[in-house]
Write a structure and sequence with these properties.
The protein is of the alpha+beta class. The protein has one helix at 17-68, and strands at 72-77, 82-85, 89-92, 98-102, 116-121, 127-129, 131-136, 139-145, 152-158.
Length: 161
């Protein structure tokens, strides 16, 4: 018995040049759209993390003052863009964020702080304070301290256009 094989013509397999170009153009468009959105997302995430970090450092300064029974100074060094708590703890603030501050006047008996003093938390719970604002695209959060209670207050800040 003789079996005959059916002859199957060979077809060319693969993609045409036109199909590859269409896929590459669609991939380029996708990267352009997603890339711009990712940068915006990263800027927004950096801003929110900085606001949380500043609030956390201010609470730590207040707690340190009450726990150790001494005044704790929170300062800002504009050259290094750092928030300095008690001369040791430093928080770097990213260049993409705008920082505004109202420094306290240096008083006699006040130990020299690195940077410009912003807040002084006292042992009995009160505080002296200027202000610090973290801004992104013209709006942001301002930090002040309640002089009587020493609590940290956050407010919404908009810069005039």
């Amino acid at each position: 018995m003789i079996r005959h094989r059916a002859v199957i013509p060979l077809r060319q397999t693969g993609f045409t040049l036109l199909e590859l170009l269409v896929v590459l153009v669609l991939a380029a468009i996708t990267v352009a759209v997603v890339g711009g959105g990712a940068q915006s997302f990263m800027d927004r995430a950096r801003y929110h993390q900085t606001v949380r970090d500043v609030a956390s450092h201010l609470v730590q300064a207040r707690t340190l003052s009450q726990r150790e029974g001494r005044a704790v100074v929170v300062a800002y060094d504009p050259g290094a863009r750092q928030l300095i708590v008690d001369g040791r703890v430093r928080l770097g603030l990213h260049e993409s964020l705008q920082i505004r501050w109202d420094a306290l006047e240096r008083r006699s008996g006040m130990e020299p702080a690195q940077g410009e003093p912003l807040f002084i938390f006292n042992t009995e719970g009160g505080a002296l304070g200027g202000g610090l604002s973290v801004l992104r695209a013209g709006s942001g959060v301002g930090f002040r301290v309640n002089w009587l209670l020493g609590s940290i207050e956050q407010t919404v800040v908009h810069t005039p256009s």
